[in-house]
Design brief:
heterodimer; A: about 220 residues; mainly alpha; 10 helices; about 0% strand; B: about 250 residues; alpha+beta; four-stranded antiparallel sheet; three-stranded antiparallel sheet; 7 strands; about 20% strand; elongated
């Protein structure tokens, strides 16, 4: 498993497309720094076509990303019915705002997942957040580590990818790892994370960034 | 906060930003910083690949009914125009045609503000308690949006003045600037022109005056342009004089 495999996992899953529509993604030939979005992924191509009103491209994009979006939303929101609702909102927003996608700010996969995370977080931070959150915390502490429900079928490649991520996560300090997972998977602000972990705000900010950078290097992320 | 302190602060927030752990104000601070710092923007893009891996790790098969629901809603959902269509033209292939470069981001800002206004409008529906504050915010955003539109670059109106249109989802913000005063008994009238060529629908009247006049119009898929004519006071059911201008709703 090399960096290219990581890259494929992140945004480049094999996908049948019209040959004349999508040139095969170029791999960066040199080490970093490479210009952002130098390598359009299938997701980028699909989103670009969807922005022009191509419904088939949007459908393919849904099929490519639905499991990741739903899984992330479900992880953050907890409740299955609400997660389904939020996932639907996310994809309709992707369709609606496809023309606003700016490839220079990172790829389509990152864009969609960022949108999904924001919507999920908005949902848990909304008016009834506290009540829901307690229920959610109860569910989460009840041994459901987020993988207990109908995970996508595991291909060997996926399994290797997961193992790699786990290994990289183990390479973080506890504080880095917890800061990242409390924010990303539970939708906490960094202020809440600081409170939960009982460390100063500045420390949490710094650990979040350090931890992500360490993961980036460990995963061999390249643009 | 001094600019330097602001930058330093924005930069330490990059990790929390990528993790979605900021409030709206801090998020805006970071995004402003990213616009000015390409290296930081690249770092964000790289760290987004990390959070994408975290998301992939918890991927789960969505319920079966979700797919038809999403695709069904897609089929009836209108797409937004590019926020800054001008931005695309800035690329290597883009020529220097059209408006001066510096004016383009302003129109983008205005479009974004209108989108926010419209978004807030939608939020209002199910959050009654916040109705008044939200309305006030919509009004102030409307003022901001009209301030952000670059007026000299807006399409000119025959006879004098300019008419700018910024649309978002199902509403459009119309900004009339410096329309010449009309003789007694006459007013300007706005029209929504249909793309199929049907009869234009009245969208209200305006007085001719110096400075800006804004209107928010409800628009539909069928509407293609905002037109302007001179009509007798009170307006007409259909235009009785030639259009002074017709500004496309969607760029």
């Amino acid at each position: 498993v090399g960096p290219d495999d990581i890259r494929r996992r992140l945004g480049d899953e094999p996908l049948r497309m019209d040959a004349d529509d999508t040139p095969p993604p170029r791999r960066p030939s040199s080490r970093r720094p490479a210009p952002v979005a130098a390598t359009p992924t299938p997701a980028d191509a699909l989103l670009t076509r969807a922005a022009r009103g191509d419904q088939d491209a949007f459908t393919a994009l849904y099929d490519l990303l639905a499991a990741r979006v739903y899984g992330l939303v479900r992880r953050v929101v907890g409740d299955p019915a609400q997660s389904e609702e939020v996932t639907q909102e996310v994809f309709v927003e992707v369709w609606r705002a496809a023309a606003r996608f700016d490839a220079r700010r990172g790829g389509a996969v990152g864009w969609v997942l960022t949108l999904a995370h924001r919507r999920a977080v908005d949902r848990v931070r909304s008016a009834q957040a506290s009540a829901d959150r307690e229920r959610r915390a109860a569910v989460l502490s009840g041994g459901d580590d987020g993988r207990g429900y109908d995970p996508v079928s595991e291909q060997v490649e996926d399994r290797l990818e997961r193992e790699r991520l786990r290994r990289c996560l183990r390479g973080l300090t506890d504080l880095q790892r917890e800061s990242i997972t409390l924010a990303y998977y539970r939708g906490h602000t960094y202020g809440e994370v600081a409170e939960l972990l009982d460390v100063p705000l500045g420390t949490v900010k710094k650990r979040m960034r350090d931890g992500l950078i360490r993961l980036r290097d460990c995963l061999g992320v390249r643009l | 906060v001094t600019p330097a302190a602001g930058r330093a602060d924005a930069h330490t927030l990059v990790g929390a930003y990528v993790l979605g752990a900021l409030n709206l104000k801090e998020r805006a601070l970071v995004e402003e910083h990213l616009d000015a710092c390409p290296a930081c923007a690249e770092e964000v893009a790289e760290l987004r690949a990390v959070t994408a891996a975290l998301a992939a790790d918890v991927a789960a098969r969505p319920p079966e009914p979700l797919r038809p629901a999403v695709l069904g809603e897609m089929a009836v959902t209108r797409q937004l125009p590019p926020a800054a269509r001008s931005r695309a033209r800035r690329g290597p292939a883009g020529g220097g045609s059209g408006r001066p470069r510096w004016t383009r981001p302003l129109a983008a800002v205005a479009a974004a503000l209108v989108a926010v206004c419209v978004g807030l409008g939608a939020v209002v529906a199910d959050q009654q308690g916040r109705l008044d504050t939200t309305r006030a915010r919509v009004d102030s955003l409307r003022v901001l949006a009209s301030a952000a539109v670059d007026v000299p670059a807006a399409p000119p109106v025959a006879g004098g003045g300019h008419l700018a249109v910024v649309s978002a989802r199902d509403q459009a913000l119309v900004i009339a600037t410096d329309l010449p005063a009309l003789p007694a008994g006459r007013v300007y009238q706005l029209w929504l022109v249909r793309s199929g060529g049907g009869r234009p629908a009245s969208a209200g009247t305006l007085a001719g005056k110096a400075g800006k006049t804004t209107r928010i119009l409800d628009i539909s898929n069928a509407d293609s342009d905002v037109g302007l004519t001179v009509e007798p006071t009170g307006g007409s059911p259909q235009p009785t004089t030639p259009m002074l201008t017709a500004v496309p709703l969607r760029a």
